[in-house]
Each structure stands twice: as structure tokens, then as C-alpha cells.
Design goal:
Length: 422
């Protein structure tokens, strides 16, 4: 072999060795980056999973807020919205950001369409922005930037922001499309597109958030069912009294409140037993639901809440209403019930219609029950109950209250009661 050939062969071997070394360096670098990504992903899951697991025992709103907090720390966006599904509508559970976000109200339905509705209707993630995104095919996010006729961001123009919508889903039976229980929405400025790595992290957050939101919605439903009377959907007796105590305690030593007033209406339905015995339990249930709707409406007008005390007895708490205002609302309620023909309303043919009215007792804190009472809520309840008895004794279909202005604890008169309430 000539010297020239040997040199050429040596150069070729060196070039091959250099190329192999370079390939090894590139491969090692790629593997290192993958390892670093895997470590970051593992650390992310360590921080993310416990936080979202804790959120599952909270309310739906608290869970949504925690989901946004975790997303902001791991991915980041100028605008973040978390929606949950309720009665086939998307409701806003939590929000983060400035601008138009300030006009959105948590707990209200979202009807803006856009990419949020697209993701909900198709149970699929989507992104839209100023230009087509170079997304990996296996990422599973639809790029809607290519088609200007498709849905865009929640607000603003697609040529100014990047918008990402991730459905929060719950797995159903085999072969069925996952059930969408919410949507996670993120929006960034035009100059800050989502990278493939960030989108992968966002999908991981959405998967874990789906489980947390599902559990929170279930927990909320269980709480509501335990706090609401199943027939009338008003507060149960225990929940009503618990809330009444809480409201009065907050007003015993007010901090920045304009008023300390709490009015309480104790309501008994006149002739309910006769109605129930004559028309049957189904008609009785209809009557109770109709009455409950009227009581709930009065409670809303009085800035308060209503509860079923048991049977055909109800209570309404009126917050920040004077005693005179509480009496006026009670009289309005009594007149409203008296004016209704429930038999006609329910399509019941009756030769001798049974007139349904209400007897209402009114008591007021702090007029009838002094703030110095050791258990003012219980005393207020006793006072309203006693005044309701007085209305029954006076002929029913009446509103009764104590005329004395000085607060004192009401005591039952020996031998005066009880009397039949129907």
C-alpha cells in the first residue's frame, strides 16, 4: 500500500470515528434531555397529585381554584378559566387574569361558544392562535389555527392570542366516549406560544384535574342532598338552625355591618291535614312544593333563606331587615297564599274546595331577643314559634308578633297549649 493510500485510509477512519463520536454525543444529549424531562415530569406529579387529591374533598369552586393554581405554576398563562358541567351547561368555577375576566362571574353559566364549547362537545383538546402550531402528531391536540372558520378564543381575536381548551373528562363504560365534566381554558399573548413540552404538561394536569373535579362535584352533591329537604329542596331543620345561629352570631358583634337585624317567620299551613286526607298524599306533596316555592321566593326578596321545619311547618330567615319590614313581608306572604286556588292550580275537581292559608309568627333579633342572650338563635326560634301559636289561636290565616318593644325572653303560659295545628 502506498503512503498516499495509507494516509487516505487513516483520514477516512478518523472521519468515521469523529462522526461516530459526534453521533454518540448527540444521542447522549438527547437521552439526557429525555431523562431531565422525565425527572421534571416526575417532580411535577409529586407536587401536583397531592394538591389535586386534596382538592377532591373541597367544594367545586375550591377545586376549580386549586386546579388553576397548579396549572399556573406548571404551565402559566395570562388568562385561566375553569368550567364545570351542571345541568347540561358549562358553569364558571374559577378564574384568573385581568381584562375581560373581571366581568365574568363565578357560578354563572357560560354561553360564549368559542373553543371552550368545541372542546366540550367533542371531548377533545384544541388550540387556536395566530399561526399553525408544529404539534407532535401523538400529542392529541387539534390545531384549529389552520381553519379561520372554526371556533376562536373566549375573547379577542385569534391573531392576537393563543388559546388552549382542555376537556376534563370522566371515563365511562368500555366503548363509550368519556363524559365531559368541565373544561380548562388557558390564554397567552401572541408572543408566548405554548411549547410541545408545556402542552404535554397541560394534558397531564387536565387528566389529574378531571379526577379531582369529579370527586369535588360528587362531594358537593352529597352535601346538598344532606342539607336540602328532598321534597321541597329547602334547607333541612338542622341546616336551617345551624345557619340561623351563624348569622345571628355574626351580628352580635358586627364588624363593619350596617345592620344587625334578623327577622324570622315561623309558618304553619292551615288545613293541610284535611287537604292531605281528602286529596291524597300525592296532592299533599304538590301543595308542599308549591308552598316551598313561595317561601323560597320571599326569602330571596328578604335577602335570607328558607327551610322546612317538618311536616307542613316552614321557617324563613330575613337578613338585614327591620322588624317592620319583616312583618310587611310576612303579611305579603300570607296574602299571596290566601289568593291562590291550589285545587284549580293542580287540576283537582272538588265540590267543596279546601281553602289553604298560612298562620305566621314573626320574631326579630335584636328587638325581641337581646344580643346578651346566651343562645339568641334558639330564643328567636322559640319566640317565632310562640307567635305562630298565637296566630292559630286567633283564628288562623294571620300574622302575629309581639308588640312590646323591650327585648325579653318569651315564656309559655301554663295551661295555654299545645293546640292542634291543622
Amino acid at each position: 500500500m502506498s503512503h498516499t493510500a495509507a494516509v487516505a485510509l487513516g483520514a477516512s477512519a478518523a472521519a468515521v470515528a469523529i462522526a461516530a463520536f459526534a453521533w454518540q454525543c448527540v444521542t447522549i444529549g438527547r437521552l439526557r434531555r429525555r431523562a431531565e424531562t422525565a425527572v421534571r415530569h416526575f417532580n411535577m406529579l409529586q407536587n401536583l397529585a397531592p394538591a389535586l387529591t386534596a382538592a377532591s374533598s373541597e367544594s367545586t369552586f375550591a377545586a376549580c381554584a386549586r386546579i388553576l393554581d397548579r396549572f399556573a405554576s406548571l404551565v402559566g398563562a395570562q388568562t385561566l378559566l375553569c368550567f364545570y358541567e351542571a345541568d347540561d351547561r358549562l358553569m364558571l368555577g374559577a378564574k384568573s387574569g385581568a381584562g375581560y375576566v373581571g366581568f365574568l362571574r363565578e357560578g354563572e353559566p357560560y354561553a360564549g361558544g368559542a373553543i371552550v364549547e368545541w372542546a366540550r362537545d367533542r371531548a377533545a383538546a384544541a388550540i387556536v392562535g395566530p399561526a399553525a402550531s408544529a404539534l407532535p402528531a401523538d400529542l392529541g391536540i387539534s390545531d384549529m389555527s389552520r381553519d379561520p372558520g372554526t371556533a376562536g378564543p373566549v375573547a379577542g381575536s385569534r391573531d392576537r392570542v393563543w388559546a388552549l381548551a382542555l376537556p376534563l373528562t370522566r371515563t365511562r363504560d368500555y366503548g363509550l366516549r368519556p363524559e365531559v365534566i368541565g373544561v380548562l381554558y388557558a390564554e397567552r399573548n401572541k408572543a408566548e406560544p405554548f411549547s410541545p413540552g408545556e402542552l404535554s404538561t397541560a394534558l397531564t394536569v387536565a387528566r389529574l384535574a378531571s379526577d379531582a373535579l369529579s370527586r369535588a362535584v360528587f362531594a358537593d352533591r352529597m352535601r346538598r342532598e344532606s342539607e336540602r329537604d328532598p321534597l321541597t329542596q329547602l334547607l333541612t331543620p338542622s341546616k336551617f338552625r345551624m345557619r340561623l345561629r351563624s348569622e345571628i352570631e355574626a351580628r352580635r358583634h358586627p364588624a363593619g355591618r350596617a345592620s344587625r337585624d334578623v327577622g324570622l317567620l315561623f309558618i304553619d299551613t292551615d288545613n293541610f291535614k284535611l287537604w292531605n286526607d281528602t286529596h291524597g298524599h300525592a296532592a299533599g306533596d304538590k301543595l308542599l312544593r308549591a308552598l316551598a316555592d313561595a317561601f323560597d321566593d320571599i326569602a330571596a326578596r328578604g335577602g335570607g333563606f328558607a327551610g322546612r321545619n317538618g311536616g307542613d311547618e316552614f321557617c324563613v330567615a330575613l337578613l338585614d331587615r327591620t322588624k317592620d319590614a319583616s312583618i310587611t313581608l310576612a303579611e305579603h306572604l300570607r296574602n299571596r297564599i290566601e289568593s291562590l286556588d291550589f285545587a284549580k292550580l293542580f287540576g283537582i275537581d272538588a265540590l267543596a274546595p279546601i281553602k289553604i292559608t298560612v298562620s305566621v309568627g314573626v320574631a326579630h333579633f335584636p328587638v325581641d331577643v337581646a344580643p346578651s342572650e346566651p343562645q339568641p338563635a334558639d330564643r328567636l326560634f322559640e319566640a317565632a314559634d310562640a307567635n305562630m301559636y298565637a296566630a292559630k289561636r286567633a283564628g288562623r290565616n294571620r300574622v302575629e308578633w309581639r308588640r312590646a318593644s323591650s327585648p325579653r325572653r318569651l315564656e309559655r303560659i301554663p295551661g295555654a297549649g299545645p293546640i292542634p295545628r291543622h
